[in-house]
UniProtKB/TrEMBL annotation:
Keywords: Membrane, Transmembrane, Transmembrane helix. Residues 1-31 are annotated as: Disordered. Residues 116-230 form the Phosphatidic acid phosphatase type 2/haloperoxidase domain. It comes from Streptomyces nogalater. This is Phosphatase PAP2 family protein. The lineage of its organism: Bacteria, Bacillati, Actinomycetota, Actinomycetes, Kitasatosporales. It comes from the Bacteria. SUPFAM superfamilies: Acid phosphatase/Vanadium-dependent haloperoxidase. PANTHER family: AT30094P, SPHINGOSINE-1-PHOSPHATE PHOSPHOHYDROLASE. Residues 1-22 have a biased composition (Pro residues). The chain crosses the membrane at residues 36-55, 116-134, 154-176, 188-209, 215-233.
Length: 248
């Protein structure tokens, strides 16, 4: 006959933090993404309408910013050339998509995370479709200068560079956070993402190929697409009501 312990096993000390996600119902990531999607969707639609109807205060502000930036760009050719290198090679949409493709390949090779890799690739591909669709629907002309320092194709709104950088950086940051990235890696990734998303917007206005509201639209639509992608990713687990877990 086995001896039974006369005292209960030691219990871990009570936590002073918030309850775990599974104890409070739906996952916080799902709720947060849903709220963000609603807010970002409203802001994106509002800006799209203001651009489409050519709201005078917005057009005036865009013009003032564009003329000032172009005057500086013509005057400072060295900085302008640096902006062209950054926007055409470092923060170009193709470069951003290649970074995303490399991340998807790593997920498959090192983690066998086929679903996550597919989700990432499809989200970025859909972002490109949304970007071109909105451009075609709005048909906003780009700034025109007698002495241009750069050129670009297609309609202006929203900025494809800003939208793509926001989507790629946002999705990769969310994946890093979800998979428990270390503090040093997380801080480095956040810094790189902030510099990339903000920097690409500045370069597009500096080079005179976008209005400031085009860049703002790219940021808003990009963030909205990230929130919707997170909703799609988390939806099956949210419906089951199961704790957070890593998908393959």
């Amino acid at each position: 006959m086995r001896d039974r312990p006369t005292t209960p096993p030691p219990q871990p000390p009570p936590s002073s933090g918030a309850p775990p996600p599974e104890a409070s119902g739906s996952p916080p990531s799902h709720r947060t993404a849903a709220r963000a999607a609603v807010a970002l969707g409203a802001c994106s639609v509002l800006l799209l309408v203001l651009v489409a109807v050519r709201w005078h205060p917005l057009v005036t502000l865009d013009g003032d910013i564009a003329r000032t930036a172009h005057r500086w760009a013509v005057r400072d050719r060295a900085l302008t050339q640096a902006c062209r290198v950054l926007t055409d090679w470092v923060w170009d949409p193709l470069t951003m998509r290649l970074v995303c493709a490399a991340a998807a390949g790593w997920l498959v090779w090192r983690r066998a995370a086929w679903w996550t890799a597919l989700w990432l690739a499809v989200a970025v591909a859909l972002a490109a479709i949304v970007q071109q669709s909105v451009k075609a629907a709005v048909g906003r002309p780009r700034p025109v200068w007698p002495d241009p320092v750069d050129s670009a194709h297609y309609a202006a709104f929203p900025s494809g560079h800003a939208l793509t950088a926001t989507v790629v950086c946002g999705l990769l940051l969310w994946l890093l956070r979800r998979r428990g990235a270390g503090r040093a890696l997380w801080r480095t990734a956040v810094a790189a993402a902030v510099v990339s998303v903000a920097g690409v917007g500045v370069t597009r206005v500096w080079l005179g190929v976008h209005w400031a509201s085009d860049v703002l639209g790219g940021w808003l639509f990009g963030a909205l697409l990230v929130a919707l992608a997170v909703l799609v990713y988390e939806w099956p687990r949210h419906r089951r009501g199961t704790p957070a877990g890593r998908r393959g």
